[in-house]
Structure formats: C-alpha cells, structure tokens
Specification:
362 residues; alpha+beta; Chitinase A, domain 3; 3 domains; 4-stranded antiparallel beta sheet; 3-stranded antiparallel beta sheet; 13 helices; 49% helix
Length: 362
C-alpha cells in the first residue's frame, strides 16, 4: 500500500470534511513516531542512519569554504535522505529477486581499482575521500546491485523498432543535413584542479582516479598515452581514469562537433584534423572555456568524420545514432516510472522531513 513520509492514510468512506479534519489533527500532533535519534528515515522498517547522511553531506561540500545557511543545509540533507531512501528501495527489490551483487563481484571491482596504485597510494586516496574499505565495499555492492536490477527489470524491456527510427528521422530530418563537416570525438582528461562534489566523489571514473597537482596530471596523461600506444582500448581507459565526470562513464565520448566549433581551439583542431578514424592525438593542453587558461591535459580520439550534406535514413551511422538516442531516452523514462512504482509499494517513514515540517523550517 502506498505510504506518505509522515502519514499512513487509510481509505475510509467518511465525508471529505471529516478526512480533512483528521489530517489537520494529525499534522498538529506532529505525527510522532518512535525512533532513535541516529535514524532519519525507514524503508519497510529498514533504517536510514544519520551518520550515512552526514557522510554524504560532508562529501557534497567538497572544498567549499563558505558555510551554507541552515535552510540550504536542510535542503541538501533532505535530498540526501531521498537519495538513500531510493537506494534502499532498489536494494530491497534486488534482494527479493536474488540480484544482490556477490562478494566475488565486489572484490573483483576493488582489485581493478587497486591495480594502478601501490598499496600506500591506494590507502592515501581512500583517506583523502574519508572512506574505509568497508565503506568502499558497501558503495560498490549497492552500485552493482542497482545496475543488475535495472538491466533485468528496465533495460531488458526497452525495444526500439525500425518504425520508431523512421518516425524520428522524418521528424528531425533537418538535423541530419550537415552544413559543415562534423567530427565525432572522444577524450581522456586529467587535471590538477579539485574535483567537483556530488558525482561519484566528484571524479566520475570507475577507479576514482584523480590527479592532485599539475605535475601529477601531466604524468598521468603521459602514462595513459603510453598505454594507448601499446594497444589498450581507449574507451576502457577513459572509463577507468578520465577525470571528466560527464563523459568518462561513456568511454570519453564527446559526441559530434562542427568544424567551426573545433576551430575555437586551434591547437585541438590542428591535431584532430590530421587524424583518420580511430587515431589519437598526443597529450594536449586542456583550456578553461571561459578564461582560456590551461587547467589540465587531454588526449583526443577521432571516432568518425562526416562531410557536409544530407544524411539518408539508410546510413548505418544515422540509424545507430537514432537508435541509441531513443534507447537512452526510453530507458530513463522507464527507470523513473519504475522507481515511482516501487516507492508506491514501499512503506516510507521520513522522520527528518517530519521534523523540518513540524518546526516550520526553523
């Protein structure tokens, strides 16, 4: 039966006015629940611990020296509680379907993360992120469990028919009329700048690998370039080590750029324009888009180059592009709907939200 964070409302045949009066009385009473101070919410009786919320809150602040207001702090904490509630809902569903990640899967991931570092370097990075090995195991298990669950319950149901592709192409035909050459690029990035908070500890790659100085960023990019020259896969290295959170997980795929866009950075354009599909550049300076000052290093891979002109529906690249876009859009829609269905079926008690509401946000 669906549950609200602070109330469990029973269906009744009473008149609407009586129901409103009952609701008002419950709100006025503060919706008191019996729970310990170190529990901020429960999902089907499973507690969401205050210490877990505190850890995520501190990580979200990063290196920000400005102290948020009490209202801003509570907004962030409410979002974190919601995040943990959703994760617990998915975890419980996965356990019911016997999809929880195994110890072997977790340890395999940890060994992959340790591989590029000495034990001392690995321990240092863990300490910098305020993580214990048990914390890391917990995070990996939850992430892998969620991935297995969504693949089975959501992604497996996404089917893109040829008719869907045709309909999309006909509605967006002008998008496939290229007025100038386009370059499909991927990149691997390293930078000595602090990582932004809130996305996979601010890094975005599978190894949680982050350079901490310009010298370290340069050394790292040169090491990755050597591995690429030795024949290692670009996408795999990008997913494991690139420090750009928005595309590391997709193998560094940047999408398509018009030639005029690339010319905004002539160093990159000159290097990329000499490549054939599949080739990579030398490590190049990475510029801040606003100040145009160097902030790190990047290796670019030319995945494809398209000449100007209209692309037909029978072009395999057009079909692949449309199919992937439709699959991602439909998958995200189903994931959102799936989580809402699971939330409706769960009993959620959000004590932290109750407390804020009861105190008028003070």
């Amino acid at each position: 039966m669906p549950a609200t964070p602070s109330l469990v409302l029973r269906r009744t045949s009473a008149a609407g006015g009586t129901a409103c009066l009952l609701l008002a009385l419950l709100l006025a009473a503060g919706c008191s629940h019996s729970h310990s101070a170190d529990v901020l919410a429960k999902v089907n009786g499973k507690p969401i611990a205050a210490k877990d919320v505190q850890t995520l809150y501190e990580n979200s602040l990063g290196d920000n020296k400005q102290q948020p207001s009490k209202e801003q702090e509570n907004i962030v904490r409410l979002n974190i509680v919601r995040q943990l509630v959703d994760e617990e809902i998915l975890s419980q569903r996965a356990a019911k379907l016997n999809l929880t990640a195994t110890d072997e899967e977790v340890e395999s991931q940890i060994n992959e993360m340790k591989a590029p570092f000495t034990q001392e370097e690995f321990n240092k990075r863990m300490a910098e992120k305020h993580l214990t090995l048990d914390d890391l195991r917990h995070d990996i298990r939850r992430a892998k469990t969620t991935e297995k669950l969504l693949n089975k319950e959501v992604n497996s149901k996404v089917n893109i028919a040829d008719g869907d592709i045709s309909a999309y192409y006909n509605a967006h035909k002008a998008d496939y009329d290229l007025v100038e050459p386009q370059y499909h690029l991927a990149q691997i990035v390293t930078t000595g700048m602090p990582a932004p908070a809130g996305q996979n500890n601010g890094v975005g790659n599978l190894q949680n690998s982050k350079a901490t100085s310009d010298a370290e960023a340069k050394k790292k990019i040169e090491m990755l370039h050597n591995r690429l020259e030795s024949g290692e896969d670009f996408g795999t290295l990008a997913a494991n080590f690139s420090e750009r959170p928005d595309n590391a997980s997709s193998g560094g795929d940047m999408g398509f750029f018009q030639e005029s866009q690339l010319r905004a950075d002539m160093t990159v354009y000159d290097a990329v324009s000499k490549l054939t599909s599949g080739q990579i550049t030398e490590p190049l300076p990475l510029l801040d888009p606003t100040t145009r000052k160097p902030i790190g290093y990047a290796i670019y891979r030319l995945m494809d180059k398209e000449a100007a002109g209209q692309r037909d529906l029978n072009d395999p690249r057009v079909q692949q592009s449309i199919r992937q876009q439709l699959r991602e859009t439909r998958s995200q829609l189903l994931k959102n709907a799936y989580l809402e269905v699971l939330r409706d079926q769960a009993r959620i008690e959000n004590y932290f939200a109750e407390e804020i509401f009861k105190n008028g946000g003070n």
